[in-house]
Amino acid sequence: MKHCKGEKEYHIALGKGDVGRYVILPGDPGRVPVIASFLDKSEKVAENREYTTYVGETGGIKVAVTSTGIGCPSAAICLEELIKIGADTFIRVGTAGSLQRHVSLGDLVIPTGAIREEGTTRQYIPLSYPAVPDLDVTVALRDAALKLGHKCHTGICHCKDAFYIEGDMEIPIKEYNEMLWKCWQRANVLATSMEDAALFVVSSIRKVRSAEVLAIIGLTWDDAPIVKKVGIEEAIRTTIEAIRILDGQDAARKADAASAKKGKKK
Predict the structure, then answer these.
(1) Does residue 7 belong to any structural domain of this protein?
(2) S-S: 131 plus which of 91, 97, 107, 200, CB 3.0-4.6 Å?
(3) Opening angle at CA 97, ends 120 and 95, nearest 5
């Protein structure tokens, strides 16, 4: 959908200049003000459907927080429209269920890739295209978590559309689902959630940066997708620290490039 200059995007109700380059993406609209409370000078700037946005600062860096809603379809819409208005670096702060016994409640998981077991990204590109996050943003998240002393894991995660399927004896393809879950567990897939495949694939195609940090709130390996909402504050603090790291790296690269250009002129 094309828009006139100055018009707001249809779903997120935001236009150019409303956000900066960095956007934190929770799924739950109710989590947006919580994340914004960790920023300076934060205020609500838009609210429409499942998309609520606050804008604030951290260390003088403009940061937006926009909810995506649940699942890949709404997350892809949110991401597409944020890209249109100028944002280019996205970090999803989400929750997930662990698929491995060593990934415990309250731990953080920073995906290095996502299994595309959802439908949205298949309408963008064939399944042979991998869903991988931006390397710089992923490393910044890992370094931030370690700096802050949070227990974190990096590795492949799983992305799905349906939430109430595991262990459901009435699902027609329950045997197939059970086989897949065992396959993912044996393959050392760390956790399962519902948005990252779309985030990674759309970002790669649109040539912007994205990554994700997940707080483990459930033990999916034990048929307990939600146990206790823990680790969310640690994920938020990790994300904000990662943005500071990234902004410092970007500033250093610009300074190096300017210095090199100046040296050539001499």
Answers:
(1) no
(2) 200
(3) 70
For 118-132, give one letter per residue: b (16+ CB within 10 A) or e: bebbeeeeeeeeebb
User: What is the residue range of 84's domain?
Assistant: 22-249
What does each of the 266 residues of the chain score in pLDDT, given as a tens digit? Answer: 454 456 899 999 999 999 999 999 999 999 999 999 999 999 999 999 999 999 999 999 999 999 999 999 999 999 999 999 999 999 999 999 999 999 999 999 999 999 999 999 999 999 999 999 999 999 999 999 999 999 999 999 999 999 887 667 688 998 898 899 999 999 999 999 999 999 999 999 999 999 999 999 999 999 888 999 999 999 999 999 999 999 999 889 888 887 777 777 66
- As for how many domains the chain has, the answer is 1
Report the C-alpha gap between 170 and 190 in whole angstroms: 26
Determine the Cα–Cα distance for residues 122 and 139; give it in Å rounded to an integer. Answer: 27
Q: Quick one: tokens of 138?
A: 């992923």
